Structures are given as C-alpha cells and as structure tokens.
Amino acid sequence: MTELPVPALSLVALVGISGAGKSTFAGRHFAPSQVLSSDAFRAMVADDETDQSASAAAFDALYYVAGKRLAAGRLTVVDATHVQEHARSSLVALARAHDVLPAAIVLDLPEDEAWARTEARPDRSFGRAVLARQSRDLRRTLKRLNREGFRTVHVLRGREEIEAATIRLQP
Ligand code: ATP
Ligand code: MG
User: Fold this and answer.
1) How far is the CA of 128 from the centre of ligand 1 (A)?
2) Whose Cα sits closest to atom 24 in ligand 1?
C-alpha cells in the first residue's frame, strides 16, 4: 500500500488516457460528490457522455461547479483525461483563482492494457488511434507537470501501483 499525500484543500486533476482507470480510482478514493467528471457534464449538457462536440460547454459547467466548491473550501477532483497541457492549464488557473493547491494524480497504464479494457466497454467506441494520440500527448508532457504549476504530482506506473495507492489528506 502506498499513501499519496494530498492537501485537504486542493483541486485534484486525475490524469490518464482513456481506460487507465480514472473513474474507478475516483470512485474508490473519493466521495461521489467530490468528483466532477467530464463524462457526467457532457451528459448533463448534451444527453450523451461521449459527445465530444459538447466538451466546451461541459467543461464550462464543470469549472463553474468546481469554482463554487473551491470557494466553499471543498476538496474537488476532476475526472477527465487531462493529457493535454491546455486542459491542465485551465485547471491550474482555476485553482490559483481560488487560492487552492492544484494537484495531479497520473494513472500511467500501458496503452495496450488501456486498449484491452476500452475495447471491452460498451460505452466506448473510439478507435485505437485516439488512444495512441492520448498516449503520445501524455508522454510528451508528463515531466512538465511541476513546471505547469502543480504543487503535488503523483505518478502511478502500471496496474499494481494504481491498485496499491491510497490517498492521505493533509491538513
Ligand atoms: P475514460 O477516460 O474512458 O473515462 P477511465 O480512465 O475513467 O476511462 P475506467 O472507466 O475507470 O477508466 O476504467 C476502464 C475500464 O477498466 C472499466 O471497464 C473498468 O471497470 C476497468 N478497470 C478499471 N480498473 C481496473 C483494474 N484495476 N483491473 C481491471 N479492470 C479495471
Ligand atoms: Mg472515466
């Protein structure tokens, strides 16, 4: 078991390609109300959690809610891929605007494993190329997370590390 220290008042970005296990991890370690997922917000604004054309509206709404939570001093976890720097930079900006610490928890599962899981899912229909692009984006920027402003960065490599991790909130 590995305890990951996370500041009790932080905005946590889960980072990982599709199928890496972000939603599973969020469900295991945080209360449902603490987790804002891009899928849930796509469904809210567009009736379809996979509708990528709804992403802009979905993230607007997600960040709005996250801002309300942070203003009230509530730990907030964002369940989205966050493999691209521009996606993470909006999250860092939001955290700073509310004077809370941005944290990143990276679930770095090998692409082959993530693909095997994704293929088995009825709620995912994109092709391998999409996953490959996410993987490339992540790989390219993984070392830059600290420089992007994340004060806490935890990188979990592989299924075993992901499964063995627990969260320790720090006052
Ligand atoms: P997405 O970005 O597409 O939402 P995700 O990172 O949220 O993906 P999950 O939905 O958590 O990924 O997991 C993907 C699939 O893998 C799910 O079907 C889930 O049940 C399965 N899964 C998650 N963790 C594990 C695990 N440790 N062992 C085996 N299967 C797992
Ligand atoms: Mg998910």
Assistant:
1) 16
2) 21
The answer to whether the CB of 59 falls within 8 A of the CB of 13 is: no
Q: What is the pLDDT of residues 34-86, one digit of tens each?
A: 999 999 999 999 999 999 999 999 999 999 999 999 999 999 999 999 999 99
Atom of ligand 1 nearest to the CA of 25: 11
- C-alpha distances out from residue 87 to 41, 49, 63, 78, 83, Å: 15, 18, 11, 11, 7
Say yes or no: ipTM exceeds 0.90.
yes
C-beta neighbour count of 59 within 10 angstroms: 21
Residue nearest to atom 11 of ligand 1 (CA): 21
Determine the distance separating the centroid of ligand 1 and the alpha carbon of 60, expressed in angstroms.
25
